[in-house]
Structures are given as C-alpha cells and as structure tokens.
Amino acid sequence: MRIHKEGFLVIAVAFLIWLALNIFVAMSGELYFRCFIFLATTPVLIFVIKFFRYPNRKIELKPKSVLSPADGQIVAIEETFESEYFGDRRLQVSVFMSVNNVHINWFPVPGMVRYFKHHSGKFMAAYLPKSSTENERATTVIQMADGTEILARQIAGAVAKRIITYSKVDTQVTQQNELGFIRFGSRVDLFLPAGTKVNVELCQNVIGSQTVIADL
Q1: 7-44 pLDDT tens trace
Q2: Which residues are catalytic?
C-alpha cells in the first residue's frame, strides 16, 4: 500500500506519539495496563495510516466526460445560483467524503486552470448545503478545449481543518492530475452547465477519477 505525500509528516508524528506512549507505559510493569494502552492506541495509528492511503488506479482519460473528483457519496444534484465565478445558474453535483474514504481529489476534466481562490470560513458539517458558501473552501475553474468551464470547489467539514490544492492558474491539467487533498472528512462540489444530464443519482457511491458524473 502506498502512502500519499500529504500523510508523511502526520503519520510520522502519530507513530512517535504511539511509540513514546507505549514505551512509557511499558516501564510501569503493569501487564494488563500495557496491553490496554497498546490495544487502545494501535487502531488509532492504523486509522491515520489508512486515511492517507494512495490507491493504485488506472485513470482512463475521457476528454468529453466529467469524472468524479473524489471518492464518496453523491449528496446533491440540483440547479443553483453560483455567485463566486459564473454569476448564473449552474447544475451542482456534490460528493461527500467520510473519514473512511480516500481523500485525494482529482481534476474532473482536462483543460486549462483559469481561476483559483482559497476562502477562509467555518467548519460546519460538509454534507449541509450552506457549507458550500460558508465553510473553508477552495475554488478551481478549468476551461476545457471547447471553451466549456467547469468549477470544482473543495470544502472543509466539521473535522477537516486543512484543504490542500495544487491548482495553478494558466496551467494545463488532465484527469490524471491531482487537484489536491482534504484532511479528515470533507466535500467537493462540481458546477456544470445548466441542463447537463448526469449519470449519477443521489446517495450513489462514486470513485474518484473513475466514475463518470456526466458527459458533455
């Protein structure tokens, strides 16, 4: 199993804490207490390592399709007014990531990054509709070869405290490139042209870089 680069430091710190705690407790000589601490702390360490796993995936380029930017569950499919960049109505498709999902984000479409902005904000539960405009978030707009623009918005959740985005304006990207990483529970919103027919439905589980959200 590979580990994502964003997890190297976190895992190292978690391991050192786990090691120091277990060594300290081991010095007490209380066998049952040592076993209890080991059994209580080891699953936490395993969870941290698992959270930063990097899945081996073959990403098939589909220049006319919108691929899911993340692993998770579809929690919104609705037309809404997008005020930050477009200033008009767009079809919003949202993917919610639980702490058990892979938290790598991929670019949903190939093209040129035309806009990027990070916003400070709240840390409400990411599945709430208003988290799209009130939570900590990062917005990226990709212009496809035919001129179609797709907006992807990474949103922090109640537990997620850091959004990492690799977007750089005027950079060419493909669906094999990583958009970024969000730590510990989050959401990614896609804003597509109004009237776009999607291939997914509410509560459907999707796989980042694999599931086709829509064909344009």
Answers
A1: 999 999 999 999 999 999 988 778 888 899 999 999 99
A2: 186
Are residues 143 and 109 in contact, defined by beta-carbon separation less than 8 angstroms? no
- pLDDT tens-digit profile of 61-113? 999 999 999 999 999 999 999 999 999 999 999 999 988 899 899 999 999 99
Phi, psi of 76 (to 5 degrees): -155, 135
Residue 60 lies in a domain: no
Domain extent at residue 32: 2-54
- Give the β-pairing of 53-54 and 186-193: unpaired
Q: What share of the chain is helix, strand, coil (3-state, %, to 5)?
A: 20, 40, 40
CATH number of the domain bearing residue 157: 2.70.70.10
pLDDT tops 60 at residue 6:
yes
State the Cα–Cα distance between residues 28 and 13, nearest whole angstrom: 23
* Cα end-to-end span (Å), the chain: 35
Q: What does residue 101 show for φ and ψ, rounded to 5 degrees?
A: -85, 160
Domain count, the chain: 2
Distances (CA, A) of 84 to 139, 162, 187, 202, 208: 9, 21, 18, 25, 25
Reported as type and span, the H/E element at residue 50 is helix 31-51
Query: Quick one: 123 and 40 in the same domain?
Result: no
**Claim: this prediction has a pTM higher than 0.90:** no
The token pair at 151 is 């907006």
